[in-house]
Write a structure and sequence with these properties.
Two copies of one chain form a homodimer. Chain A is an alpha/beta fold and about 350 residues long. Chain A contains twelve helices and 17 strands. Chains A, B: This is Ornithine cyclodeaminase.
């Protein structure tokens, strides 16, 4: 081996990630990823950004989300298939890679199904800290599926939410959410309609999964001073908010070129005024300016949030000694001689070493 | 486990791929992948295609190449860093995934560093079968790096090339190529310039790696009836052929929207006439029309070729019982209850089963 750069990749499987999250705690993971997201959003101009690529089918969508700064590249693979649960599969599944910009070497391959749930909740909390009323204590959660517990904990830990008003068209989903929140100290009320859940809430979080132009929240439901955290509308043809609601509110987005295609604002003209959240975090643009203002975070999920989550998970895995090293890339005795490596079985076999290890 | 769909992913590491290729043979792998490419190119209109996304830095580029048909989605991660060999790393490293369009489940995660070399050579041979003179026996190879042996074997096995004229600015590269070709039956001649290598060749294959606007082959070197297999110019700012040579030849490409950005034709106006190769393979457009015609395959590498290679490697691995199953996606007792899985360590630990297995 003449190699001076490592050719192995740290691998975090879904079970290993579950162990990592269990040891750190869900609340701590969300808070730490929120800190990474906030930090990275302040460096927004340093990133090479693009709207994600999406391959659509009648059943769902598969997306790739790349982003890089001067030293680190990441991408996420993520699907959205609302009917997957009938097959025993999650609606959203994901994994991703963190790589070295200087060489292209993939340094980390990680599950991102659990991690996407954490980072989506963290992103919502980062936005709400800038946009919701500081005295917000009551949050409605419309759609009580796989993302709902993570949002509840994020808003409890990072916003001070104490009470949840819950609605789902499937009462079993709400029952699952309530069971999972036992012991968190959160108060909750199960509601029988969206309108009832939204009534009196300081923050309204929408997490519906149908790939359809839905109108979950209408202008009549909205009260002065509300912050809407609209997470479910994230795909062409998949919306949650009535267009008039958007017109009457102040709308904030992650990355405008992507949100105009995928977010609730896809219903509005391309010149509809929105503010990119990083501008608010950096102090370039105002967030909420008065207590009666209605704010909307039209969240679709942007690659930078996965960049932040991947670097947190890499550091946490190294700290805890979790993960194994895999040979995704060949270790070549002579990197100019790829063909020769195919005829040196001993040399390639020496690469089969796995076990806990650090990203160099 | 209530899951009815498998949540494990077949994983082919670089050493396992080296074993697979060793057992099948390089020539057989290239021939089989060429057959898959030809078959898939005939189904061209059935694919959802896009130009790859590229993140550029001063040292190189990292690209994502997604594509899908109605049932199968694939993507490849690939870098290009010409100075990597100084660090003991390959210039080009790659891996990829094959997934189920109906659910988004990643079914195969595979190394693609070796496989990219095989599929690039296979693609060149598929193009040359349609474009080179059938009596071609002599091929020049300009650039004798990591891709050169694969091209030599592909053209020997699939085109009937018997003699190579070799040139590289680094004589050690040529010596490596010649050593690796021992026992193949190929005749070779080491040349001291590009012009000498090209002289008298039926086919000219250019495989240079510099990320620069180079002019490796000029119009004066080109003889009537030649086929140019231009593989190295595959990135904005990275070219190999003189623009006048392109203007005087018949130019064929993989996917025009991508090649106009990345290929040698980036030097020419956006309306420069080119023919997509699939049109020739399908009989919609002529390839070579007379013996004196100069043809150019301005190859940049398109996602469909990786789609073809991934499905071949999946089938070969299953046939040979190679690979192991990994838990990239969590196996959830209740797919609607992601949060609950984080509090069931026993359930997630049961997923740690690995070993040879088939893609379901």
């Amino acid at each position: 081996m003449h190699a001076t750069a490592p050719t192995s990749t740290l691998y975090l499987s879904a079970p290993v990630m579950a162990e990592l999250i269990g040891r750190k705690g869900v609340g701590q993971c969300i808070a730490s990823i929120a800190a990474c997201i906030h930090e990275d959003f302040l460096r927004w101009p340093q990133f090479e950004k693009s709207a994600r690529t999406a391959n659509h089918s009648s059943e769902g969508v598969i997306e790739l989300m790349p982003i890089s700064d001067a030293t680190t590249y990441t991408f996420k693979y993520v699907n959205g298939h609302p009917r997957n649960t009938r097959l025993g599969l999650p609606t959203v599944m994901a994994f991703g890679v963190l790589a070295d910009v200087a060489t292209g070497m993939p340094q980390l391959l990680s599950e991102l199904t659990y991690t996407t749930a954490l980072r989506t909740a963290a992103m919502s909390a980062v936005a709400a800290r800038a946009l919701a009323r500081p005295d917000s204590r009551v949050m409605a959660i419309v759609g009580n599926g796989a993302q709902s517990e993570f949002q509840a904990l994020a808003f409890q830990h990072l916003l001070g939410i104490t009470t949840l008003r819950l609605f789902d068209i499937d009462p079993a989903a709400t029952a699952k959410l309530v069971a999972n929140l036992e012991g968190t100290g959160l108060q909750w009320m199960a509601c029988t309609s969206v309108a009832e859940a939204v009534r009196g809430a300081d923050i309204v979080t929408t997490l519906t999964a149908d790939k359809a132009r839905a109108t979950i929240v209408t202008p009549a439901m909205v009260e002065p001073g509300m912050h809407l955290n609209a997470v479910g509308g994230d795909c062409p043809g998949k919306t949650e908010l009535h267009a008039d609601l958007l017109r009457q509110a102040s709308v904030f987005v992650e990355y405008a070129p992507q949100t105009r295609v995928e977010g609730d604002i896809q219903q509005l003209p391309a010149d509809f005024g929105v503010t990119e959240l990083w501008q608010v975090l950096a102090g370039h643009q105002p967030g909420r300016t008065h207590a009666a203002q209605v704010t909307v975070f039209d969240s679709v999920g942007f690659a930078l949030e996965d960049f932040s989550a991947l670097r947190y998970m890499r550091d946490a895995a190294i700290e805890l000694g979790l993960g194994e090293r895999i040979a995704l890339i060949p270790a070549l005795a002579d990197p100019k001689n790829l063909f020769g490596a195919l005829h040196q079985p001993a040399a390639t076999a020496s690469q089969r070493v796995t076990g806990p290890g650090a990203v160099a």
